[in-house]
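Late entry, thymidine-5'-phosphate complex.
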Amino acid sequence: MRGKFITFEGIDGAGKSSHVEWLAEHLRARGHTVLLTREPGGTSLGEKLRELLLNEPMHLETETLLMFAARREHLAQRIEPALERGEWVICDRFSDATWAYQGGGRGLDKAKFLALEHWVHEHLQPDLTLLFDLPLEIARERIVLANRVLDKFEQERADFHHRVRQAYLERAQANPSRIRTIAAEKTIGEIRKQLEVVFSTIC
Ligand code: TMP
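Prediction complete; structure with ligand written out below:
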């Protein structure tokens, strides 16, 4: 039986990464084999592209093409083979991030996004996407508290992040059965409860 494909999304500072690991353990405890991975990245080539994408200024279309190039490699090398083997794949970001960041944040033409999405993964969408949503101010506070060097996206102004959040919420509204919104300003314990409710219906 084919495995399930789960993605995590949200604006920078939404805190999704700390729950990705927890979910992998939660699923393993239920007997599933889990591949935990991320985008941009997930392969040796993808991680090199990540370095460039997160740090190097570039034209919007170059940025978009490189995101999808890394994704193509990731799908071919890791995601599709794992799903074929019946494993569950948990991916920290996928194409909804391109929709939100390059589309919403930077204003990429929607038709160009759709053409690339069709080209790169016409027959594959996540079975479930968890969108970690919270007010921008709380997300920003978390980033400041982490006290580390900020990447290119984290350095963007508040209006950029506002557009990213709006684009995510619009995408969630357009795909209600795939994308579940998690109230990410809550405590870790309350977020885990929300995740357990979502997963009790599918595993
Ligand atoms: P991360 O820090 O959550 O791993 O995400 C890396 C950054 O890359 C984050 O700021 C969002 C951005 N990104 C895009 O702009 N487009 C994409 O398609 C993906 C996957 C990530």
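The first strand starts at residue 5 and ends at 10. Will revisit in the morning.
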